[in-house]
Design brief:
Length: 475
């Protein structure tokens, strides 16, 4: 028996490849399915099942392409209704895979069809739990994504409480938990950077599995402080339910190399968003006017989803040479299938053609300290999450989180100089590029973000909660 976790950091997502006696199950696959097929070929095995823990909101699953290419059955749990052929398991149904068995455990709460898969090894021992978004390491799935007219967030949280206590907490402590996500995913609020653990350890340290917690307290804990979900989530759910174009079709259609003149014409004629995927500290030194920067080096796809809310939006790409296909692939993972081309030759070709360029000023933390000592009419804008800001921030700074930048646009000052920072520089450049594209010229990015600000030792800071409670920075 083999169990392999295939973890994709930019999505904070875990896919699972399980093989026994030449038969394979893949749980929650990404949209590009060739790696799973190639792995099975190397093992001399055949993919028999594609198990889905639920209708994913934060990425487009590869279930359709993987089934079409291999003949594998697509399996969902109870309550799932699909626009394609799929096998809907009953609660407790057991599937044979070589010498092992996999049991479907219906665990509604995150969504109504949420299902965990319990693996029994060759001896019949309960070995591993593939918990989807029902149970994470350090957290549980948010219960606000599948609300309906007759079901509230609190109703779903109550279902989740029952699922955890009746289906999961009764399992042996030595069972290994393999969740669908880790830290950085928007599907929970307090996930660990660890991507697997024993159930016994989670019973000790996961707040949601506390044995003496009443349901009312659980509901309050799980629903308190939930950030607004990204607007692309419902669109990904619909694609996963109803179907989508094959990855090959999307990649071929999107990979159109456009010389600078054709790229400029497309930008002027189509209303496409010009998305620059280069590193923030490369972008700021020169970019196409009105383009926005979301660098491939960070959590690219989730930030695209947060900042470009419509997956049907047409996109034109500017990338580092050689990163064109990677940019298209990562966009398709979250349903952004309408890339109409990329800049042939990269930004260098744009410059060589004599086209107009723009820049964003970037200064060090020490230079910021010098300027603030002499300027009376400037403001520091902190675009980190509220929890990061509350942990520690520059005295007098204004917190305008990047996640909500479109809703907060009126709060960015038009006349004062804005010094913008995040934790390390990734998010602040995104914010600066969006502001620049909307006509704000009075902005300066802080190189190295709050990390550099702290290291300089030149700023008075305020904290509301113990800094040791901070999660790992997204930057």
């Amino acid at each position: 028996m083999k169990i392999e976790q295939i973890y994709t950091g930019c999505l904070a997502q875990g896919t699972y490849y399980i093989e026994s006696e030449g038969e394979v199950a893949v749980i929650d696959p990404l949209r590009e399915v060739t790696p799973y097929i190639e792995r099975a070929t190397r093992d001399g095995a055949k993919i028999k099942y594609v198990f889905e823990t639920h209708f994913h909101a934060d990425f487009v699953s590869g279930h359709l392409d993987l089934s079409k290419k291999t003949g594998a059955s697509i399996v969902y749990g109870p309550n799932a209704k699909t626009g394609f052929e799929a096998y809907i398991a009953t609660d407790g149904e057991v599937f044979s895979l070589g010498k092992i068995k996999i049991k479907a455990l219906h665990t509604p709460g995150h969504t109504l069809e949420s299902t965990c898969y319990l693996l029994f090894d060759e001896t019949g021992k309960e070995k591993a739990l593939f918990s989807g978004d029902t149970l994470f390491i350090g957290d549980v799935g948010r219960p606000d994504l599948a609300q309906k007219s007759d079901l509230t967030m609190n109703d779903l949280a109550g279902f989740l409480y029952d699922s955890l206590r009746n289906k999961i907490m009764t399992l042996p402590n030595e069972v290994i938990v393999y969740p669908a996500h880790g830290a950085g995913s928007a599907c929970g609020k307090n996930m660990s950077k660890e991507t697997t653990d024993t159930l016994g350890n989670q019973k000790l340290f996961n707040y949601a599995l506390r044995a003496d917690m009443p349901k009312e307290e659980f509901i309050k804990e799980v629903t308190d402080g939930l950030a607004k979900p990204p607007q692309y989530f419902p669109q990904n759910v619909q694609m996963n339910k109803e179907g989508y174009e094959s990855m090959e079709v999307v990649m071929e259609r999107s990979a159109q190399a456009l010389p600078p003149a054709a790229f400029e014409a497309a930008a002027n004629e189509t209303g496409a968003v010009v998305l620059d995927t280069r590193d923030a500290q490369v972008f700021n030194k020169g970019f196409i006017p009105n383009s926005i920067n979301i660098g491939l080096g960070g959590q690219f796809a989730p930030w695209v989803g947060a900042l470009i809310p419509d997956v049907k939006q047409e996109l034109l790409l500017v990338t580092e040479k050689g990163n064109e296909q990677e940019s298209i692939l990562r966009l398709a993972r979250v349903g952004y299938d309408n890339v109409i081309g990329y800049l042939e030759g990269g930004f260098e070709a744009w410059q060589e053609s004599g086209n107009e360029i723009d820049e964003i000023s970037s200064i060090s933390a020490n230079e910021l300290a010098d300027r603030l000592e002499n300027e009376k009419d400037s403001v520091v804008i902190d675009v980190r999450k509220p929890s990061e800001f509350e942990a520690e921030h520059i005295d007098g700074a204004k917190n305008l989180p990047l996640d909500n930048i479109s809703d907060l646009m009126a709060e960015f000052p038009k006349k004062q100089t804005m010094y913008i920072h995040c934790a390390g520089g990734y998010r602040s450049m995104m914010a600066a590029s969006i502001l620049k594209s909307r006509g704000y010229d009075n902005l300066v990015d802080i190189d190295g973000g709050f990390s550099a600000i702290q290291k300089s030792g030149r700023f008075k800071t305020t904290d509301f909660v113990c800094p040791t409670t901070l999660k790992k920075s997204e930057d």
